[in-house]
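Can anyone check this?
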Amino acid sequence: MRGLPGAVIVLAALSAAGCLGDSRSDTPRPSVEELIERAAEGDAQALFELGNRHADGDGVARDNVLAYMWFGLAAERLTTEEGYEARRMQLRLDPDMFRHQITEAERLARIWKARQAARERDVERR
């Protein structure tokens, strides 16, 4: 046990220097454009990821209005527990937003849904 604290210090130093590698997957993350395409095809997980990207400013400018919109759309389509998580993410944004921003996010969500419905009708007609 005597050498354990020293080993912890060495591991911490190696980790800080980036010598231990990255434990995250090497699988490339989809671009925001790819996520939007997947969302348009009905992928609810893509909706949730778009919410995260806009909330964090990851690959796009940070935008609470769009994050709120994407999380709301995801919550409507995901299973109970995942939908709950999307709603929870919306609630985390809520204190940082003005009422008119939430109203705008809800308006944008209605537009998205209307366009999706029109797209689905077009597909059915073909």
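Reply from J.R.: I decoded it. The helical segments are 4-16, 32-40, 44-56, 64-77, 80-93, 99-125.
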